[in-house]
Amino acid sequence: MNKHMQQSLDKAEVLIEALPYIQRFNRKIIVVKYGGSAMIDEALKRKVIEDVTLLKLVGFKPIIVHGGGKEISHWVEKVGLESKFKNGLRVTDGDTMELVEMVLGKVNKSLVQLIEELGVKAIGISGKDGGLLKVEKKLSDGEDIGFVGEIQEVNPDVIFDLLEKDFLPVICPVGMDFAFHTYNINADDAACAIAKEMNAEKLAFLTDIEGVYRDAQDPQSLISELAVEEAYGLMEKGYIGGGMLPKLQNCIDAIENGVSRVHILDGRIPHCLLLEIFTNKGIGTAILNQKEDRYFDGE
Known about the structure:
By secondary structure, the chain is of the alpha/beta class. It is built from 9 helices and 14 strands. The strands form 4 sheets. An 8-stranded mixed beta sheet has the order 5-8-2-1-11-13-14-12, sandwiched between helices. It has a two-stranded antiparallel sheet with strand order 3-4. It has a two-stranded antiparallel ribbon with strand order 6-7. β1 (about 30-35), α2 and β2 (about 60-65) form a beta-alpha-beta unit. α3 (about 70-80) crosses α4 (about 95-115) and α6 packs parallel to α8. The chain is globular, with a radius of gyration of 19 Å.
């Protein structure tokens, strides 16, 4: 058998491996929280958007919820303001909030443009549109950190309407309180709240880490699939710390509110979404509710 024929057969094997996942998740909603380095590197950005558009074209109903922290920090510095954080949350005064909304709007439309270039219809909205995300002021350990919102209500009607009309929604995490003031929202929180309200089949977090480790110092201890009970155990034993702790808690919260699976992926790996969703082992960590739902039981 010549080399060209073998390469073609290998491609066919990949497609066959993906088939049961395409069948299982056809017409199902998947929320992708897009952030980290994959938003800064233009080549990676295109690969992420290629992944999401492919999901759309094979029958999924993807929704992108994006952040923009690094881009915001760049522009805050560029206009002479100062970036301040408390417990990982950006302190957002009035001037900073104005800039945040402008930058997130710019990021939002750049993603819409890229999706449209790839032949899929996309519409960019914020949590303000259609009253999608209603918030109250969020405190950080009792401290006022400005216009940072805690989600109180999600009105998914506008997203359902867009999906019904075959659009790919791209959502930036800006919302309003009940007095119609504008607030910045943590993108992880927004993705989690939207996934719960939409009864999403999957929620995928694109991050700058490979996934969840049993031992943060041992790169060989990456966990491919993790039941909620095991996740609680890792947290109680102190294995999970830093920025992973609130992310994992968000994952558990989503699972306990009806999302079937949550994936934590390294967005720095090209086509990480396709590798995780369409291959038997995947490359990140999948968090699930019941052990019998597992795809991969180890070797």
